[in-house]
Structure formats: C-alpha cells, structure tokens
Amino acid sequence: MISLETKISDKTFSNCIMNASGVRCMTLEDLSNLSSSAAGTWITKSCTLSPREGNPSPRYVDLKLGSINSMGLPNLGFDFYLDYVLEQHKSGNDAIFFSVAGLTLEDNLQMLTRIQNSDFQGLVELNLSCPNIPGKPQTGYDFERTHEVLNEIFSFYTKPLGVKLPPYFDMVHFEMMSEILNQYPIRFVTCINSVGNALYIEDESVVIKPKGGFGGIGGAYVKPTALANVRMFYKLLRKDITVIGCGGVETGRDVFEHILCGASMVQTGTLLMKEDTGVFSRLITELKEIMNLKGYKTLEDFKGKLIEL
Ligand code: IRO
Questions:
Q1: Ligand 1 atom showing the smallest separation from residue 133 Cα
Q2: Taking the complete model, does pTM exceed 0.85, yes or no?
C-alpha cells in the first residue's frame, strides 16, 4: 500500500495535492467542487476586507506552456470566506487553508484579528506576493517591510500561519528572506506565486488587458524556478517550517520533483484552471505509479532527498 499522507503544522492530510490559491476557489460553487474532488485539501481565493471586482477582462489567458494572469484580486470579501471556513469547522473540517491578502498592513491586521478571535482552527496562508495590483508592490520583495509585517502580526497572532512567497532569483535573497522567516513562529511557506510582470505577445498584441499586458506567469514556464525556490527554502528554513510547492505541475512526475526538493504539499494552479478538478485523481495515480516503480511507500521515503552531484 502506498500512502500520500502528509502533515502541515498540526494537520494531517490524506494526500499531498491541492489547488493553488486563486484557481477555482472564489465562489461557493468553486469551493464545493474542490471539497468533493480528490484533492488532499483546498485553499480559498486570497481575500481582501471588502469584496473586489478585480481588473478588467481579458485578465487570464492559457498559453501553450502555461498561463498569464492579471486578475487583480477579485474576491467575495473577507466575511464570505470567514463564514465559509467557519461552516467547514462546524462540519468537522479544520484541515483547510484560508488565504488572506490585505491591501494594507492595517487590513491584514484587522482580518487576522478577526480570525484569531473566531473558532477557525485551520491554516492561514498570508499572501505576500500578489503581483497584479497597480500601485501595490509585492511585500515579499521588500525585506524590511516583510520583517515589519511579521513583527506586527506575531505580536498578537497565535494560530497556525504560513506565507505565500514570490519567486526569488538570487542566493542572497533566499538567505535574507529565510533569516527573516526563521525569527517567527511561521508554520509553512508556499513557493512560488506567479513570476510577476511578464509580457506575452501574439501577432502584434498583448493578450491581457490590465497593465498594458503585463501579468504573472504560471505553468511549465516556471517549474525550474519553483523547484529552486522549494529547494532553497527547504534547506535554509528551520526544520519545523514546512514547504508547500507550487509551480509547473502538469504530471505526477512534477509533483514527485517538488517533493524531492523538499515539499510536503504540492499545489496546482494553471493545470487546475485548464482541466478542472479531475486533475487531482490523475496526479495522485501518476505519483503513486512513480513511487511504486521506485519502491517508495510514503512521501518521507524521498522527501528532500534530491541527489546532488
Ligand atoms: O491577480 C491576482 O488576483 C493574483 C494574485 I492575489 C496572486 O497572488 N497571484 C496571481 O498570480 N494573481
């Protein structure tokens, strides 16, 4: 028997595959579809205090090797998602992720205070890396600001919380961010968010409307960057901080590679958008096939054990 069981913080999940925040998780219908899929768990769309329409369309386009998006944080507002996760709690499900992406530090503090004071017992993924809000820099690229934000949050917040990071491309940046994160009781990091502010052209035109066509890239384009980020944070973070991999998952082999790099859970965004929630059972089957061929029974048999030459 092969098990894909995994743990993050104090939660156990029957398998290690879930959606990336933002993909098919905005409405109640989306969330119900995720809950009845084969995913090991699921996460809600990053939310803001008030509901948002997001950027003008077209704002998401599938590309041959991935996707480009500038959604602009469309969501039904904090109250909707808090009600949703509290309903889940009432029905006995606390192994769920709640994504929060306040437009200001004050908004994040307000949302986290309400979560702290609620019955919510799941995991918060604080999004420090949305690339698509005009005028709002990605917090994860501002190390001093990230430090300040975490300081404020952990002055009162005691429930399990992790952060969604942007991709980094320089060894010094991996080290600087790890040194900051290691100072706080963070339970997990999710890497990576989309590779921000890229430009895709067809014929003589951009393909999405917001920001002159600039948007975040996901899918096969970003897999090597995602794996590098998973690997570096797995090596540099405290051992009690779990890494969630996200980026470029199209097959069970891709999930396997994320876990080899050190991921304990693997998210899928672009693929889930393309193929809908049927992807989870396919990825599970394909991952189990690889484990079977290699004689691995659990994720622990190969997690982080990437061979270096
Ligand atoms: O535009 C979005 O809504 C969006 C977000 I909040 C994010 O974190 N990452 C992304 O690619 N798009």
A1: 1
A2: yes
